[in-house]
Amino acid sequence: MFVASYLGSCAASMAGYCACWTCSTVTRETMRRSARLAYSFLFFLAILISWAGRDLAKPLIEKIPWIMRAATGFEPSDKWFGQQAVYRISMGSFLFFGTMSLALLGVRTKGDKRGAYLHQGNWAAKLAAWLVFIALPFFFPNGLVVAYGWAARFGSGLFLIIQMLILVDFTAAWNESWVAAGEDDDRWLYALLGLTVASYAGVLAIAGLLFAFFKPGGAGSCGLNVFLITFSLLLCVAFSMLSVLPCSRGGSLFPSAITSLYVMYLCYSALQSEPKDYACNGLAHRINAASGSTLVIGMLVTLLSVVYSALRAGSNSQLFTLADDNDDIAATSAGRPLLDAEAVGDSADGAAPAAVSASRAPGADATAALDDYTPVSYNYSFFHLIFALASMYIAMLMTGWGAVEQEKDRVDVGWTSVWVKTGAEWVTALLYSWTLVAPVLFPERFA
């Protein structure tokens, strides 16, 4: 009986060890093959810590004297404690990704050891460094954190602008791709037409829902909400008409339809950020009656959308090309001779460099040497810069852009958020309109 028990215990321990070893191996392999997903996980973890810190960090911060010195002369509220926690955690995430961005400047080929060891490898050391960066701002003086809060407003605006640029370029590239495919198969053109009609139908449906939710009966005229919804629709009509005019070179209704859909989404996002005690925010009144799980799901969806936006923006290191999702793309066979020829041409004495000479050796050594000249599939430094800016955006999202009316059970609420999103909506419409008229105004630059 004792022997059986002992053997069972050993078997259970061995099974646990094997399970842990397997999980760690799979995790390391996943991180090695897709570094972007691993960094996205760290970023999302920072978001969750910020979320928890905003609501639960008061007992901890009360015990930190250099932070509490900033509260002399007034009685700090729960929102003040939450803001302190969010700013410092966001600052730690910003410093981590900002440091990575600086360290990876100039990495253009896979032969650069910084890409292999710093960006894609050594995850245990990077996780430890990330934890240090997250904790470090809690030792910073309050003045530095306040300065970061103001800098985060500008960094967040830059993050939103990059999102807009990528959206405008993505829709144009999508349209060109399907139109080109439609030259050989008309079904691509019919699909493009169907998506265009569906997008405009979605615009009208969103507008109808916005009038229903944000101009509820018995709430008065709700002039501000009516203006924002109506003006958004007029913007959609204006740049849609502009896109089909003869003066708009390369204009098309499909990019206009997708941009219109995004503009109306921004209008909705701005209106739902109105404080819940505002009479014209009928959606907030419905949310108040929702269950706690519904609120949590809504917040998680918001945060996941930010993670996805940062991931896509970081992967689009060139704003006017579509990103490739594979971290380990090999160079094309056509590209390798070009790299080899360039290296030979750059040699001062006409002889091939050592690396290229090695590439002519048979077997695996030749492949490894050529891989040293394989371009990376995206700009590592730019990728981390986007996540640094997204860390700033999270600080604004959690604190309602630093406003005092941020609500505990919601994120991105307050009049500051309303006007920031409204401004983002108008800038999106302006940027898209500019892409239509710029080739006409400056033909030599868009030839």
From TrEMBL:
Signal sequence, renumbered to the chain: none
UniProt name for this protein: Putative serine incorporator
Keywords carried by this UniProt record: Membrane, Transmembrane, Transmembrane helix
Compartment list: Membrane
Pfam families, per database record: Serinc
Gene Ontology cellular-component terms listed: membrane
Spans traversing the lipid bilayer: 36-53, 85-107, 127-151, 157-176, 188-214, 226-245, 252-271, 291-311, 382-404, 424-442
Protein family membership: Belongs to the TDE1 family.
InterPro entries, sorted: TDE1/TMS (IPR005016)
Membrane topology per record: Multi-pass membrane protein
Domain of life: Eukaryota
